[in-house]
Design a protein that fits this description.
With about 525 residues, the chain is an alpha/beta fold. Helices cover about 45% and strands about 15% of the residues. The strands form 2 sheets. Strands 5-4-3-2-1-12 form a 6-stranded mixed sheet, with helices on one face.
């Protein structure tokens, strides 16, 4: 082993809270591999360390195995989710007291998935390489469940570490975020075994897939991406502080700012055809205001198109109105040409989970609308005036690799609008951007992203940032729309590919680890 033998022994024989504490520190170390730090070697140290902690636990010691995995997950998620705390400072007098419950509770609950994964690995009784391979398989299954159960929250899956691994990230077009998670955990847990005789050859074969993935990514990045003729996008980043955004007396000034920024001369010498405003850009219901639509029509000049995030109300006679977090498309005359409603809502932000229990205790969702937001119908492909068909996503929806676009009618580009102003200059907006970038790469589609306070960007279908606006800066991006690359293997056969990888990993774990401890 490349580790100090004494350190190895110390880790193996830690007991009780010391083992859980060491696992927690390993989890914090692993989280350093996430954006924006991108210190991916940290994960390659953390995973072997936690496997050492697991190695000497008896197969029937379920409690210790679970707590080791839970401690590892708790450290990882607590560090990965710490940016959520910034949202509770926006209206601190109302919400700050909820911060430790929200951040700590979310991290602790997400860590349960990892605790169960470690429990299953320990019950299998595999040794060394078999244990490392099985951890990759079972942790990937745990992450799939984490993204699905109880509305799902797949933020910061280990596959996100690929953001700092260069061309390796290109393989997300083959097997998506689940495949990246499996391979990265597998690589992180296997490399120390290159220094051990019994299964060195198999470990070497597994690790060879890392440089091969990098080489394939370099080859893919040679693809030439051209532009859609006649489509020139303007992304507006108004950089409105969150504490000012929903003040009623600011509504007029914010609307004027957006109109003025949208009407500026083109920055790239080409006529602007489509203008993108961020999530919840306005503090009023623009589709219900004839005067506001008239001002939009004047700004658009009869030819350009506006896409904006906004709240939308559905009036129901005899029952409570529904409020949606939406994207509206306005044609050159100021008429609504398309409407998309967010369907994956943020727990604790746009709706309060377990409301019957938490509301009497004083907990409230952070976004204040009467009741909770209503959920839309799911992803769909929309006809866009004077541009190819498009798929919309709002904020948090960009972290879900599954059912990100309509599989029946494939779009040719993606629009993501978001408001990360809640989270200040924290790691959150950068991790959010990195996850949105992976969605573009998975689908082989360009993405146009408008964020209120940043980071706004144009991302080509290979995941390259063609243009970006820094966090916390007002500005515009004027850029032609890139062409899509066509369907990727993941976009066509994602479920089958993931099942095949997990099956192959399970067989390999059995073959290499069948000698029980």
């Amino acid at each position: 082993m490349p580790f100090d033998a004494r350190a190895d022994t110390r880790l193996k024989y830690l007991l009780g809270w010391r083992r859980v504490g060491a696992a927690f520190l390993a989890g914090v170390l692993a989280a350093l591999a996430l954006p924006p730090l991108d210190l991916w070697p940290a994960l390659f140290l953390a995973v072997p360390a936690v496997l050492m902690l697991l190695e000497n636990i008896g197969r029937k010691n379920w409690r210790s195995a679970f707590l080791t995995g839970w401690g590892f997950g708790f450290g990882y998620f607590l560090f990965a989710f710490h940016w959520i705390a910034f949202a509770f400072f926006v209206n601190a007098h109302d919400y700050l007291w909820m911060m430790p419950f929200a951040v700590g509770g979310l991290a602790a609950s997400m860590a349960v998935y990892w605790g169960l994964a470690f429990l299953l690995v320990n019950m299998a009784g595999f040794r060394r390489l078999g244990q490392a391979v099985l951890l990759g398989v079972v942790l990937t299954l745990a992450e799939l469940l984490r993204g699905f159960l109880f509305t799902g929250f797949p933020w910061a899956q280990p596959g996100l570490v690929s953001d700092g691994m260069g061309a390796v990230a290109q393989t997300v077009s083959l097997w998506g975020m689940p495949g990246l998670t499996l391979l990265i955990v597998l690589w992180a847990g296997t490399w120390p075994l290159l220094f051990e005789r019994p299964q060195r050859l198999i470990a070497l074969l597994i690790m060879t897939t890392l440089p091969l993935s990098w080489a394939w990514g370099i080859f893919r990045l040679q693809t030439v991406v051209t532009d859609v003729a006649g489509v020139n996008i303007r992304i507006v980043q108004p950089n409105i502080p969150q504490e000012d955004k929903w003040r009623g007396d600011n509504a007029r000034a914010i609307f004027d700012q957006l109109l003025e920024m949208s009407a500026r001369p083109s920055g790239n010498g080409k006529p602007i055809t489509h203008i993108i405003w961020p999530e919840s850009a306005l503090a009023f219901l623009i589709d219900e205001s004839a005067a506001a639509r008239g001002e939009v029509a004047t700004m658009l000049g009869g030819a350009r198109v506006l896409v904006t995030g906004t709240l939308r109300r559905e009036v129901n006679a005899g029952s409570e109105d529904k409020v949606y977090n939406s994207v509206l498309t306005f044609d050159g005359s100021g008429n609504v040409a398309a409407s998309y409603d967010k369907w994956r809502l943020v727990p604790g932000g746009e709706f309060l989970p377990f409301e019957w229990l938490l509301q009497p205790l004083g907990f409230r969702k952070v976004v204040t609308v009467p009741g909770s937001f209503a959920a839309g119908q799911g992803p769909a492909t929309y006809d866009m005036p004077h541009a190819p068909p498009v798929s919309f996503s709002i904020c948090y929806e960009a972290i879900f690799p599954d059912w990100f676009v309509d599989s029946g009618v494939r779009p040719q580009w993606l629009v993501n609008v978001t408001n990360d102003g809640w989270f200040g200059n924290s790691t959150g907006p950068y991790q959010h951007l990195a996850q949105a970038r992976l969605r573009a790469m998975e689908q082989g589609l360009p993405m146009v992203r408008s964020a209120n306070t940043g980071v706004s960007a144009v991302i080509d279908p290979l995941g390259r940032y063609l243009a970006r606006l820094p966090l916390g800066q007002e500005g515009l991006i004027d850029w032609p729309l890139p062409l899509d690359l066509g369907s990727t293997p993941f976009s066509r056969y994602g479920a089958m590919i993931i099942f095949g990888l997990l099956l192959a990993g399970g067989i390999l774990a059995f073959v290499t680890g069948r000698n029980p401890r």
